[in-house]
Design brief:
heterodimer; A: Rossmann fold; Rossmann fold; 2 domains; six-stranded mixed β-sheet; 26% strand; B: mainly alpha; ABC transporter involved in vitamin B12 uptake, BtuC; two-stranded antiparallel sheet; globular; binds adenosine-5'-diphosphate; binds magnesium ion
Chain lengths: 506, 310
């Protein structure tokens, strides 16, 4: 490591209308290190990196590369200075091949004709060196997410990026793919490259980083070497107060099976059977966590339980009563509550007020009717009570749901769903895209509901969450439960392997 | 009835089908370039009409069909550039702005014709060019190789277009820009430049198509194209944005058209039906389009203007 950092950003300030996205941020990267940017959604991480990559211009501050001040006005400037960026949302042309995507924008050795054979050869050499196996002639739309990310990395390496920005690269990967990515990234630092890694998954940050800079609301709130950092200390810097990452779970006497699924078969959106003979039991007073790579049938399973998707085989019983293919409202009457994964798509109505959203399922309840008409006073009292109880931060009850933050929308939905003390609660991705603070609260609420003898089926792509909350972990793969493990005894690696389809030894 | 199936008539029908396909083929190849890069130009028919008048008028004055074609090219380039300014730089709604170009071309070509020519006067047509050797092949030679130069040029442009789109860096840029302009832009491919080029190519070929139509017929009249420019746009969908597919569509249209004409001449179709029969080519082509085009996905950025960072 030389004394002069390869990158230094000094006093970067960036304002958007009404938002201070970055305020006097200092950030530097040395050759051969991974410097992580950590922060909640909206903390300003992507903005800082887009400034570095020439997509935004800073209002104040300067950028130095190898000690020299530089101006970066466009992604082309950044590429010329050997800066590469893997965007949070991939920048690939789906109908082109891998080689074409890599060659795009570069001059061809053969003049105006493309020279894809030569490009493919270089791709294969890079792929070999960095463990990024890929077929250069594959068309991108045929590739899985993890492979697409490899194409993005190869694109940057092909342009001889020395400084590589990775904006939340692990968000879409399975644990195995994350491990593989980390091997690639370590090879890159060993070659003297500098990496900027962005994530909010604390265990990944601890596993990969050399140094960590924490942003909160555009300000730097911490800059620490990885040695001595803990998940708790990082979370505290992110949120600004102490956070409980693993909720206290008092022991609960587990009751009888409240949700029984046997031989369940469901057809997905594309007409293929995505749930294929699935068996599962969730008992009163337990949280059963479903781990799995998305697209393995968990969404369709949840929708089938809630009556939102037709069951084509098998049966579902709630509290001992057969509810297979009943109407959603009838299934609710049998004690089901459902927190959907698409908060503003099917969990809440964006343009409805907080109060209206809370009343969505209860509006026909006699308690809120007065001679057949809505009793607005009773409704207001009921929603105000829930808003207070679930700490939903909203200016008032009439605010449209779409103006709330993700975490507060989720708390509002939870308030609605849990208000009737359900027999069974199905919670899909309960804290996806939600701040740590709100996630902590939602977790504590789920634990509380468990103490009230609700059977909770929690579907989550976040393994930390699954491990922290579950009493049992069931792994779903290609529409079947391929194994159930005890979180106290199992490791992340074991669960990760099962998520990739490897059956546990019986 | 049997009369129709004589060899001479069969040959004439095929040969005339090929001829009738030419303006459509030229226009829809041009439109293919624009659409592959994400720009829908609905003004093709207007550009064709002005190209047709320009070509006709030049031949009328100079008696040179080549100067006539050149005029068509010039008009096509200018109107192609105008279309590019409107749809790429001004980011106008592409479903509407092209209709403006069409109406302009429809009105302007007729106005110029009334002012400058008045009564229709025929002009000389393309000379026939028999391909040595090939044109002597029995039957096939007469069908395929005894046409005018413009027919060979139009069909020759099919492999050329395929090559450009699939094998050159320019073609790769076109495909990228039509599919994901953000990604292309992030790698330094100029979305604006690429689209200006393709829309201008489209205009140029539409101008040539119009001139070829007028010179081939040797006349001009109001609305000479009879909406062929719109058929050409439909053919791009029918051909699934591929030059070979577009050629198939143009030939289908040409053959149906030539059959209907032949039926009419032979009295197989009664006079009173001739209006309905005139619609047959368009109807059959659109039916085929509905059946075939469904299977292909259009360029993802088609009709979407591009703004960096939006
Ligand atoms: N183009 C933009 N226009 C207006 N506000 C923006 C823009 N980009 C980001 N912001 C705002 O700036 C803040 C920081 O956003 P971002 O850098 O994307 O956060 P992070 O990547 O840490 O989640 C957020 O409040 C966001 O809404
Ligand atoms: Mg971000």
């Amino acid at each position: 490591m030389s004394d002069v950092p390869m990158l230094e950003m000094r006093g970067i300030t960036k304002r958007f209308p009404g938002v201070l996205a970055n305020y006097r941020v200092d950030f530097d990267v040395r050759s051969g290190e991974v410097h992580t940017l950590l922060g909640e959604n909206g903390a300003g991480k992507s903005t800082l990196m887009k400034i570095l990559y020439g997509l935004y211009q800073a209002d104040e501050g300067e950028i130095l590369l190898n000690g020299e001040p530089v101006e970066i006005h466009s992604p082309m400037d950044a590429i010329e200075r050997n800066i590469g960026m893997i965007h949070q949302h991939f920048m690939l042309v789906e109908t082109l091949t891998v080689a074409e995507n890599v060659a795009l924008g570069l001059p061809s050795d053969r003049g105006f004709r493309t020279d894809l054979d030569a490009v493919s050869e270089r791709i294969e050499a890079l792929a070999e060196r960095y463990g990024l196996s890929i077929d250069p002639s594959a068309i991108v739309w045929q590739l899985a997410v993890g492979q697409r990310q490899r194409v993005e990395i190869i694109k940057a390496l092909y342009r001889e990026a020395n400084l590589l920005i990775l904006d939340e690269p692990t968000a879409v990967l399975t644990p195995q793919e994350v491990d593989q990515l980390f091997v690639t990234l370590r090879q890159m630092t060993a070659d003297g490259r500098g990496l900027i890694f962005i994530s909010h998954k604390l265990h990944e940050v601890l596993a990969l980083s050399d140094r960590i800079t924490v942003l909160r609301q555009g300000h730097i709130t911490g800059k620490v070497p990885v040695e001595g950092a803990t998940r708790e200390s990082l979370a505290e810097m992110m949120v600004g107060r102490q956070v409980k990452l693993v909720p206290d779970k008092p022991p609960v006497e587990v009751g009888s099976a409240a949700l029984e699924i046997s031989g369940l078969r469901v057809v997905g959106d594309r007409g293929h059977e995505t749930v294929r003979g699935l068996n599962l039991e969730v008992r009163a007073g337990e949280i059963l966590g479903i781990a799995g790579v998305s697209g393995n049938g968990q969404r369709e399973m949840a929708q089938a339980i809630a009556g939102l998707r037709e069951v084509t085989g098998g049966s579902i019983r709630i509290g001992g009563v057969e509810t297979t293919n009943l109407k959603p409202a009838e299934i609710r009457k049998h004690g089901l509550a459902y927190v959907t994964e698409g908060r503003l798509r099917d969990g809440a109505i964006a343009d409805f007020s907080v109060s209206e959203n809370i009343m969505l399922i209860d509006h026909a309840d006699p308690r809120y009717l007065n001679r057949g008409l809505m009793d607005f006073r009773a409704i207001r009292e009921h929603s105000q009570m829930l808003v207070d109880q679930y700490a939903v931060k909203t200016p008032n009850l009439e605010t449209p749901a779409k103006n709330l933050s993700g975490g507060n929308i989720q708390k509002m939905i939870l308030a609605r769903e849990m208000s009737g003390t359900p027999t069974v609660l199905v919670a899909s991705q309960p804290t996806r895209g939600v701040d740590i603070g709100a996630a902590e609260y939602i977790h504590s609420r789920l634990v509380q509901q468990r103490a009230e003898d609700t059977a909770i089926l929690m579907i989550s792509e976040d393994l930390d969450e699954v491990f922290a909350l579950s009493d049992r972990i069931a792994v779903i793969y290609e529409g079947e439960i391929i194994g159930i493990v005890d979180p106290a005894a199992a490791t992340r690696e074991q669960v990760g392997l099962m998520m990739a389809g490897v059956r546990p030894e019986a | 009835m049997n009369e129709f199936f004589t060899q001479a008539i069969l040959i004439a029908t095929v040969a005339s089908g090929i001829r009738l396909a030419v303006p459509l083929l030229l226009a829809s190849l041009g439109e293919t370039f624009g659409q592959r890069s994400g720009v829908l130009n609905l003004g093709v028919d207007g550009i064709m009409l002005l190209g047709a008048f320009g070509g006709y008028y030049t031949v009328l004055k100079t008696d040179s069909v080549w100067l006539g074609l050149l005029t068509g090219i010039g008009i096509g380039i200018i109107l192609g550039l105008v279309s590019a300014v409107i749809s790429v730089t001004l980011k106008a709604e592409q479903g509407i702005s092209g209709i403006g170009i069409y109406l302009f071309g429809l009105g302007m070509s007729d106005l110029l014709f009334q002012k400058l020519v008045g009564t229709p006067r025929p002009v000389s047509s393309f000379p026939k060019l028999d391909i040595p050797g090939l044109s002597d092949i029995p039957i096939l030679g007469e069908m395929l190789f005894q046409h005018s130069m413009i027919v060979y040029v139009a069909f020759g442009l099919v492999p050329v277009s395929m090559y450009i789109i699939n094998r050159t860096t320019f073609g790769m840029n076109i495909r990228a820009v039509g599919e994901n302009p953000e990604a292309a832009d992030s790698l330094g491919v100029s979305v604006v430049r690429t689209r200006y080029l393709t829309v201008t190519i489209g205009g140029t070929l539409a101008g040539i198509a119009g001139a070829a139509l007028a010179i081939d017929l040797g006349i001009f009249q109001q609305n000479l194209t009879n909406a062929q420019g719109f058929i050409a746009i439909a053919l791009v969908y029918f051909g699934a944005w591929r030059p070979a597919g577009v050629m198939g569509g143009a030939l289908l249209y040409g053959f149906v058209n030539s059959l209907v004409l032949q039926f009419k001449t032979l009295g197989i179709i009664p006079r009173s039906w001739s209006d309905i029969a005139a619609m047959a080519p368009a109807i059959i082509t659109i039916l085929a389009l509905v059946l075939v085009a469904r299977r292909f996905r259009q360029p993802a950025a088609l009709t979407k203007p591009f703004t960096r960072g939006a």
